[in-house]
Design brief:
With 330 residues, this protein is α+β, with helices and mostly antiparallel strands. It has one domain: (Glycosyl)asparaginase (Glutamine Phosphoribosylpyrophosphate, subunit 1, domain 1), CATH 3.60.20. 40% of the residues lie in helices and 22% in strands. It has 12 helices and 13 strands. The strands form 2 sheets. It has an 8-stranded mixed β-sheet with strand order 4-3-2-6-5-1-11-12. A 5-stranded mixed β-sheet has the order 7-8-9-10-13. Strand 7 and strand 8 form a beta hairpin. Helix 3 packs antiparallel against helix 4, helix 4 packs antiparallel against helix 5 and helix 10 packs across helix 11. It starts with a helix and ends with a strand. It binds N-hydroxy-L-asparagine.
Length: 330
């Protein structure tokens, strides 16, 4: 068969995009790495399970992390993400989310109101626009134009918590170990999720309602590529949780990925990023700030590290589901 005939025949069988996808799937299988998914916080094992179902069904890491983080977004009991997330000081729930795939495609929304699945809007920003970030009203307008429905995200539980907060109106994201312990008992917290699929591709997603009782319009690290999330297929991926202002200060997730690039294990890389903040701001300051990083390198090795104790990472792979207690720097 000459080349022209071959191309015509193939063209009749499948669109070129499908063909190239299948070819890269085949190439991926040649050096197949083991599928895995990891998330910030032990409470996100259910989200990992959803992502794992996608991975073993042969779906991409991108689909896995997307579907996975939708679980806490839809859970009204989770007061840090999506529906039921704690509001800002004006009682308005604003969501931040971002997503990144193996090919460096990125999308994010910031300060999105009234839409449960901020991560799905972030993915649409990535796939359907020439941009990478949409904020506030523009993000909402874009979501509505793409068929999303407006919902009230402030549940009676989160409204009650906000009303109680209003009595003192003290905003203090700087925290103590005891406060962190109390919060973890009640909350699952922001979810950052990273995965490797059966084609050896990495992707990540991060979604949150941000720091409770923040100023209206405040954006943290979670929707910022390089801060709350970063993926480089040649190296690995990282995601962050905790006080976003501090994560942004050190371009947290990107810093973790760069440390892995220079040969550090995922755990060492998370520690190196935290050490940078301590060097910059000093120990007394950092003793009141919680940050946790998770990391996954492209060999499928995982690691985590936090500034203060009590950070956890949820892992799902073919051996089952596991929770890792992070080491802490301070
Ligand atoms: C933020 N990093 O908005 C988020 C909050 C968070 O667990 O992770 N909470 O700063």
């Amino acid at each position: 068969m000459n080349r022209r005939k071959f191309v015509q025949t193939i063209g009749a069988l499948a669109p070129l995009t499908t063909l190239s996808k299948n070819l890269s799937a085949f190439e991926g299988n040649v050096s197949q790495k083991k599928s895995i998914v990891i998330s910030t916080w032990s409470g996100n094992t259910k989200a990992n399970e959803k992502a794992w179902e996608q991975l073993i069904a042969g779906k991409s890491a991108l689909d896995a992390v997307h579907q996975g983080v939708m679980v806490p977004e839809a859970d009204p009991e989770d007061m840090s993400v999506g529906l039921g997330g704690l509001p800002d000081r004006d009682g308005i729930v604003t969501l931040d989310a971002c997503i990144m795939d193996h090919a460096g495609n990125i999308g994010a929304v910031m300060g999105l109101e009234n839409i449960v699945h901020a991560i799905s809007v972030a993915r649409l920003v990535m796939e359907k626009t020439p941009h990478v970030q949409l904020v506030g009203d523009g993000a909402l307008q874009f979501a509505l134009e793409h068929g999303f429905e407006k919902e009230n995200l402030l549940t009676s539980k989160s409204k009650k918590a906000w009303k109680a907060w209003l009595k003192q109106s003290q905003y203090n994201p700087m925290t103590t170990v005891e406060e962190i312990e109390k919060r973890i008992e009640k909350n699952h917290d922001t979810i950052g999720m990273l995965a490797i699929d059966s084609f050896s591709n990495l992707s990540g997603a991060c979604t949150t309602s941000g720091m409770a009782y923040k100023l209206h319009g405040r954006v943290g690290d979670s929707p910022i590529i390089g801060a709350g999330l970063y993926v480089d297929n040649e190296v690995g991926a990282a995601s962050a949780t905790g006080v976003g202002e501090e994560v942004v200060r050190i371009c947290g997730s990107h810093t973790v990925v760069e440390a892995m690039r220079y040969g550090h294990s995922p755990e060492e890389a998370c520690k190196i990023a935290l050490e940078r903040l301590v060097k910059m701001k000093g120990k007394p300051y950092c003793q009141k700030v919680q940050i946790g990083f998770i990391a996954l390198n492209n060999k499928g090795e995982t690691g985590c590290y936090s500034l203060l104790p009590n950070f956890t990472m949820a892992v799902r792979n073919e051996e089952g589901s596991n929770v890792i207690s992070s080491k802490s720097l301070l």
